[in-house]
């Protein structure tokens, strides 16, 4: 199947804001117009700030305008995509032209981490038939919870070795959108055991690690598994019957 190209479609809007990061996760700077600005929130017509979701925390960055800057310390989904200005920073007025910039180090680390967790989920599903029941990530580290009753001897080392193989295999990671029915026809597309797709969602964004893992996902990802870099499996915790937590960290 030829995946449709992602682009600035209706699905890439949140209220009045066009979400640029969904079509291009590498975008770090862009021009925009301010639609609303209060000490609590700034709304732009175009934004690449990831608002958080799917376990991936929101971006940080700045808006540059009139020779000054407004630091952005977070973002969230509301009626529009809302950027959270740093307390006390100057605010642009509605109608002002601004240049937005994402804090690159944090976002790039989050992209690598998010892709690493998909890779881990793909490996554990393929080789140990376990589903994800929970997740969390910070830049450079994260954890996934699995419904896994018992683990074989050497499980942690086996997972680490297979993750390393998948990074070395440099599998392409592609992002595309599918109509709901077509997406749900893909076996195991909703990889998390509990998380079902809300009925209102008509177009499903897919993150596809070629040959390893296909998931419905709204986050930002690197372009291939080699771009994740080395994944260290920090520990495997037994959290009770049928509940194993795997913690990973990115090296370098
Ligand atoms: Zn994800």
Describe the overall structure.
The strands form four sheets. A six-stranded antiparallel beta sheet has the order 4-3-9-6-7-8, with no helix packed on it. Strands 10-11-16-15 form a four-stranded antiparallel beta sheet, covered by helices on one side. It has a three-stranded mixed beta sheet with strand order 1-2-5, with no helix packed on it. It is 17% helix and 36% strand. It is elongated and about 60 Å long. The chain has three helices and 16 strands. It folds into two domains: 10-102, Elongation Factor Tu (Ef-tu), domain 3 (Beta Barrel), CATH 2.40.30; 107-250, Threonyl-trna Synthetase, Chain A, domain 2 (Threonyl-tRNA Synthetase, Chain A, domain 2, 2-Layer Sandwich). The chain is of the alpha+beta class and 252 residues long. Bound molecules: zinc ion (ZN). Zinc ion is lined by residues 54, 114, 118, 217, 219.
Largest sheet: 6 strands, antiparallel
The number of domains is 2
- Cα radius of gyration in angstroms: 19 Å
**CA-to-CA gap between the ends?**
36 Å
Helix content: 10-25%
Strand content: 35-45%
Catalogue the unreliable spans: 1-10
| Mean pLDDT over the full residue set | 92
H-E string: EEEEEEEEEHEEHEHEEEE
User: What's the level 1 CATH class of the largest domain?
Assistant: Alpha Beta
List each distinct ligand once: zinc ion
Counted by DSSP, the helix tally is 3
Secondary-structure arrangement, i.e. CATH architecture of the largest domain: 2-Layer Sandwich
Given the helix and strand composition, which structural class is it? alpha+beta
The CATH superfamily of the largest domain is known as Threonyl-trna Synthetase, Chain A, domain 2
Strand order in the sheet with the most strands: 4-3-9-6-7-8
What sort of overall outline do the alpha carbons produce when their principal axes are compared?
elongated
* Count of DSSP strands: 16
Q: In the CATH scheme, what's the topology name of the largest domain?
A: Threonyl-tRNA Synthetase, Chain A, domain 2
């Amino acid at each position: 199947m030829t995946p449709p190209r992602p682009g600035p479609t209706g699905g890439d809007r949140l209220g009045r804001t066009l979400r640029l990061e969904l079509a291009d996760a590498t975008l770090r700077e862009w021009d925009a117009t301010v639609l609303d600005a209060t000490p609590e929130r700034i709304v732009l017509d175009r934004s690449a700030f990831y608002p958080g979701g799917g376990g991936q925390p929101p971006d940080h960055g700045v808006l540059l305008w009139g020779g000054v800057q407004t630091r952005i310390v977070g973002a969230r989904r509301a009626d529009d995509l809302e950027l959270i200005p740093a307390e006390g920073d100057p605010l642009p007025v509605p109608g002002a032209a601004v240049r937005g910039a994402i804090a690159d180090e944090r976002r790039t680390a989050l992209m690598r981490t998010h892709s690493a967790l998909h890779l881990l989920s793909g490996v554990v599903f393929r080789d140990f038939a376990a589903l994800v029941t929970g997740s969390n990530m910070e830049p450079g580290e994260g954890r996934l919870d699995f419904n896994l009753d018992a683990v074989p001897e050497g499980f942690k080392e086996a997972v680490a070795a297979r993750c390393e193989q998948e990074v070395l295999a440099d599998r392409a990671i592609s992002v595309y959108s599918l109509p709901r029915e077509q997406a749900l026809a893909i076996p195991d597309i909703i990889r998390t055991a509990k998380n079902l797709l809300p009925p209102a969602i008509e177009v499903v964004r897919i993150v596809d690690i070629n040959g390893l893992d296909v998931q419905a996902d709204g986050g930002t990802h690197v372009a291939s598994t080699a771009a994740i870099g080395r994944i260290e499996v920090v520990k495997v915790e037994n959290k009770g019957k049928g509940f194993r937590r795997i913690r990973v960290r990115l090296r370098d």
